[in-house]
Amino acid sequence: MKKILFQFSLFFLVAQSLLAQGLPRNYTEIKEKIPKLYQQLILDGFTTPPEFNVRTAAEWEEMQGLLINWDSDHNELLGQIVDYAQEECMVFIISTAQDSVENYLTGVNIPLNNIAFINAPTDAFWVRDYGPVSIYKNYTEELSFVDWRYYSGFYGRPHDDVIPGTVADYLGINVYHTTAPPYELRNYGGNFMSDGHGAGFSTYYVLSHDDEEGNPNLSEPQINMIMQAFNGINPYLKVETLPINAIDHIDMYMKLLDEETILVGEYASGVQGSQNNVQIQENIDYILNNFSTCFGRDYQIIRIPMPPIEGTIQRTYTNSLILNKTVLVPIYDKDPAMDLNALSIYQNAMPGYNVIGINSELVIPLSGAIHCITMGVGDEDPVFISHAKIREVANTGPYKINVFLNTQSGIQNSFLFWSNQPGGGYQSVQLVPTGNDNYTAYLPPQAAGNNVYYYISASSNTGKTIKKPFTGGSPNYGYFKFQVPPTAAPPYNLSLNNETILSGITVEFQASNSISAISNYTVKNGADVTFTAGNSITLNGPLNIELGAEFNAEVYP
């Protein structure tokens, strides 16, 4: 553990321009007026990369808490966030005025449940940009924080830049700082998205050579190296800056909803902001043409209409927060129909989530909204579920479901739940371990034309149960969905006619009730034969093939 000392003053120049998310255009002049004598702040942590495989958590993963920095100029907005967030997790409020904050919350009938205060001075409330980024050793071990440098050498917002260390100390968590060469890197949480599997997204703002806000001495390969070393990010996708923007952060027009789905803003033709549409489409094309999801497939793009830009005010619906089972979306009451449409798009894309619109009209002139003023804190003992959801099928099944499960304590049990109705009637099939944290189950054959709704449930040996999607099961009934085509053909069946299996094709075995057979069978006229059997099946007496195994046979002419 290294200890680094910095000198700061208690005084900081407070002006409306400095409260904005980015530094003001005349910041160089303002900086000269800031005193050079600073109070002493101590920053604990490592300035070299973690000595383990790193995984950066995605926003939709299990969160133990939400971090906000209280600003009394935005009591109503922050109060609403606290009210909804405390139903999902702990809310950590950074403030030096705990009594005042508590008085406000109780005065508007917001309960003080699941709230903790971190007593620390700050300069601005954009905690997404300077807050700690949650990482894990391997998949779920050893929760730690990464602290990117915020602005220029602590000149602009010195108190904000040490918040990750303050929070880490409060929670007893290790923190890794990108504050010392050769790993010195400025980055901002509002300009970063993680898919939870190693891919990261930013705008090219991270490559800026601006002395105050960028990385003037780093090349793109060097930035990629630091992000991989500290955050486990590879690949690091970067998209071009939009022609018109209040701040060049990716969360102002793009958002990952899950590992394979990207919500992207678009502007109506002819309105201010429509000048961005061409570049937005080029950025989408760049992603689709050059990168695949963590499951080796194309990203799915969902478009969301955005309000027109007014001067320097860039209203956005993508600056939202996913927090366990709740999604908080900024709305503006400028166009209620557009607000409702945005909420509907989220609800359709994220079934079962509690999608809430929060009026962000008073904060958006400062170039940010809900995502910019919140930061999730990863769970210390998560259940990690990775699954490539079924997008489409060609036949009536059965359908093989592959899942990766990882916890610190191990998996106690895991199930696939499925139904033909989204709101209930779910049946369960046990997921069977196949080695290296991989699990398999088979979703039973379906009638042509059926809609199928399903989710994954996994419980750790410590007794925690998590679903995928996070809202799966009662009472939310979130799900993955696919439809069996009306013209789908049934799978081939084996005939029990004392024939002989030879060799050459793959036969997959699915669980139902235990079954054994001593007759000989022949696989005829084609491949991809699926045989529905029990926990095990015996062929010709001595040949026993367990659930999920593959048996090679030759097609008999």
SSE topology:
Blueprint: E1 2-7, H1 16-19, H2 27-33, E2 40-45, E3 54-56, E4 63-69, H3 75-85, E5 90-94, H4 98-107, E6 115-118, H5 127-130, E7 133-137, E8 141-148, H6 158-161, H7 163-171, E9 175-178, E10 193-194, E11 200-203, H8 220-231, E12 236-239, E13 254-258, E14 261-266, H9 277-290, E15 300-305, E16 321-323, E17 326-331, H10 336-349, E18 354-359, E19 375-378, E20 384-386, E21 399-406, E22 411-419, E23 427-430, E24 432-435, E25 438-443, E26 451-460, E27 465-468, E28 480-483, E29 505-510, E30 529-532, E31 536-539, E32 543-546, E33 550-553
Parallel strand pairs: 4-5, 5-6, 8-9, 11-12, 14-15, 17-18, 29-30
Antiparallel strand pairs: 1-2, 3-7, 4-19, 7-8, 10-11, 13-14, 16-17, 20-21, 21-25, 22-23, 22-26, 24-25, 26-27, 26-28, 29-33, 31-32
Main traits of this protein?
single chain; 557 residues; alpha+beta; L-arginine/glycine Amidinotransferase, Chain A; Immunoglobulin-like; 3 domains; globular; disordered N terminus; disordered C terminus
**Unreliably modeled segments:** 1-18, 23-42, 492-557
What count of structural domains? 3
- Content of β-strand: 25-35%
Please tell me how large the radius of gyration is: 26 Å
DSSP helix fraction: 10-25%
**What is CATH's topology name of the largest domain?**
L-arginine/glycine Amidinotransferase, Chain A
Helix/strand/pairing class, anyone?
A: alpha+beta
Distance linking N and C termini: 70 Å
CATH homologous superfamily placement of the largest domain: L-arginine/glycine Amidinotransferase, Chain A
> How many E-type strands?
33
CATH architecture of the largest domain, please?
5-stranded Propeller
